[in-house]
Amino acid sequence: MRNKIIRTIVFDAMFIAIIAIMAFVPNIGLITVSPLISFTLLHIPVLIGAALFGWKRGLIYGIAFGLLTLIQAATQPRGAFDPLFINPIISVLPRALFGLVAGFSFELLRKMPRLYQKGLFIAATSLVMTLFHTFLVITSIWLVYKADVLRILQIQDAQSFHWINFIGLLAIVFGALIEAGIAAVITPAIAVPIYHKYPFLLNKKEQNNETRP
Fold this sequence. Notes:
Number of strands: 2
Strand content: under 5%
Strand order of the largest sheet: 1-2
Shape: globular
């Protein structure tokens, strides 16, 4: 039991440290393309942790993701939308829900007997969950800060929507697809070899037996 607790603490510290490094080192986890457009790769450690350890770790790493982006937005704002992420409803809540749902989605891995099946499932789930994360964040921003979004985009009303704004929206959609594609490649590339080396991660009974004296 003690070994299990120590191992869990080590993994948690490692994943949270990775998320922190990606959050605060410019253009590693938060990539700023322009004052209005930025992309994130911080969701990938959350997906890997959720795939390896289940919904509890997914929730914890999702909350860490949100809190660290909140701190980054408050201390090192890099884009026009960053001040909005100081609100935990925008920065923390969607990321916590994202990690939780991803963790539950990855539970199906335990029913798959072959590594290649796990790899394909992780890739597909990572892609869908990344798009889900983007949807949650954008929806929360729109619901809470609709007027601010229109002001930042310099849109007075629906009639003043300019083709430049449309290009910006296309860039956001394209960026979300890139984020999803990268997650679909990196997450299984890291998680599957770890499963291969430590199969007990998928089998809770084996994990419990391993920690008994």
